[in-house]
Amino acid sequence: MKKCVLTVIFSMFLVLNVFGQEFIMDNTKLFGSEVFGTYNYFESKRIDYYQYLRKPYNVKSNGKPAKKNRTYERLDFTINSVALYSKNVKYKEKADKESFPNCKMYYASNDQLYYDYNPEREDIYENPIFHENGKLWNVLLKDEEDPEVERFVVWDKDGNTIMDKAYLPKMETHQWVNHPKYGSGLVQYIAAKKPSFYPSDSYLNFPTEREQLMDWRSDNKAYYYGYNHLGTFMNNVFGYSITGFLLPTAFKLGNGSVVFLEDEVNKKNYWAVILDQEIKFTIEAKATEKPNILELNEQTDVEVYKPHLAKMVSKNIKTLNGYGINLIPQDNIKAGDGIYMEVGFFKNGKLHGIGYRTKMFTTNDRYGDLLTIDACYGMFENGQPKNVKYIKANNEKKDKNFWDAIPFDGFNYVGEKSKDLFSGFSNMKLTQLKISDEIFIEKINRVAKIKSINPQDNSITVFTDNPNIFTKLDKNSGSIYVNETFLANDYASCPKTIKVPVYAEKNETYFVPAEYKSNSYVVKGVYYDKHVTTSSYKPAEVASKKVRYIEKHVDNVCPRCNGTGYVVNGETNKNYWKNIQF
């Protein structure tokens, strides 16, 4: 497994080093998931804190196990191997879990308050937990600026903020609030008030120092530091960090961004366009160009209306010189269906340098979301595309791959599946091709039709997704195949074996009961009739007979297919993709 991971890391950065200033066809999911926008989807796991409060172990009084439904002057117990105690408390025991009513808890080591319970606080999380040195550890706060929002804040033992995560509160009915700005339920994109750490696992074992979070960064883990809309994502699987505007990586907010990329393996830095969680374009950068998260947040206005609708604009966007963003919802359709975004480097308010520009809309039909997109990425000059790749779609299914750098003009997306291809034998010569033949382009896994055949320069011209663009293919275009139709047997599946009964015989005894018969009749006479009675008797006996029965079933070769598993079911037309020899 480690060898595989190292191979991926080496291959990824070999690509980066070789193509540091070029467009890249990459298949590395930066956030480790096919799900979009998961760079900071590291749950705070407030429930873990609740469980730590509600699951004390080894509850004792004066060294003896506590008995349920008794009130004690002092109870000693442990929570996650931390020795604690409570005073004047009634102990209860529920099934295999030990618990007792809400009460204050103290560190046994120094009598420092651990959990400050106040019955007037409505939510258990509003009762703060403290570190052993007396510093506040975590608590749920009512946000002073936005009364509709609660903030779950966590500090290390030195007072540094580890997390400042925002939530929508519950109503009295314990249903999640429906809010016109934040939507329904536990909404991911409520802006954090301070930059926070979001490790990929919950806060197990009570990490009390930021260094412990850093140590968690193993071969298969990552963590994020920043706000919901911008920050630094660090993933040790690939040995890199990315810093910048990360909220636009959510699919409906652009599915990409321009970020500062640190190659920690080769000690190099890049500005990179990431699309669909993959690196698509890079230029080398200096370490001093890395954005400062705090300063970048101060320079950015962000307003999140719903998880898939946001406004995120650099404050001086009209005169901006440097790294910035201009993400706004579209006003000409209903809210949430579309965005316009420019992100990257600006000069006098116009994209100048590496950038990503997109207009993107999603609509719904009975089969899911449809995507309309007009985008480009690469290098810009005074607001105009200079060296870019285009992304275009018109009411297309969003699961198509529009995001790879396509080497052929006119094609909008990369296909997903290859055909059954045959090369190295029975190749098709250029002179054997016909106009309108279907060809398969292996580099992009797409099928196209031949528009013209050009024997002078050994090339063919094909139709593309754009009716106004035709693409020329030759020996430098990679493997190209032509679809040849032929008549072949059509096969139907058949079981290779059938179950056949095996019969046997056995003698079976049975009881024949006794049988008595009597018969009376009249014989006509001259003078009188004579009544005659006859009878017979057969005694009971035990008899036997042979009986035939199924002893077992055995597998025999199917006589229909002779054990091959298929039978010929007539003839049909089939496709045969033959390699074109330019």
Secondary structure elements and their pairing?
Elements: H1 2-18, H2 46-54, E1 57-61, E2 64-65, E3 70-79, E4 82-94, E5 97-99, E6 105-107, E7 113-115, E8 129-130, E9 136-142, E10 150-155, E11 161-167, E12 178-179, E13 183-184, E14 196-199, H3 210-215, E15 222-226, E16 230-235, E17 240-245, E18 256-263, E19 268-275, E20 278-285, H4 293-298, E21 300-306, E22 309-314, E23 322-329, E24 338-347, E25 350-365, E26 368-381, E27 384-397, E28 421-422, E29 428-429, E30 438-441, E31 446-454, E32 459-463, E33 470-473, E34 480-493, E35 497-512, E36 515-523, E37 530-538, E38 541-557, E39 566-581
Description:
This protein is mostly beta strands and 582 residues long. The protein folds into three domains: 2-40 and 228-397, no CATH class; 46-199, no CATH class; 497-557, no CATH class. The protein is 7% helix and 50% strand. The protein has four helices and 39 strands. The strands form eight sheets. Strands 28, 29, 30, 31, 32, 33, 34 and 39 form an eight-stranded mixed beta sheet that branches. Strands 1, 2, 3, 4, 5, 6 and 7 form a seven-stranded antiparallel beta sheet that branches. Strands 14-15-16-17-18-19-20 form a seven-stranded antiparallel beta sheet. Strand 25 (350-365) and strand 26 (368-381) form a beta hairpin. Residues 1-19, 33-37, 171-176, 185-189 and 200-219 have low confidence and may be disordered.
Q: Please mark out the parts with pLDDT under 50 across 5 or more consecutive residues, or reply none.
A: 1-19, 33-37, 171-176, 185-189, 200-219
Total domain units? 3
Largest pleated sheet: 8 strands, mixed
Q: Report Rg.
A: 39 Å
What level of helicity do the residues show?
under 10%
The beta-strand count equals 39
**What's the multimeric state?**
single chain
The average pLDDT is 79
Could you say which overall geometry the principal axes of the C-alpha atoms support?
flat
How far apart are the termini? 42 Å
Broad structural category: mainly beta
Strand content: over 45%
Keywords: Signal
Signal peptide: 1-20
Protein name: DKNYY family protein
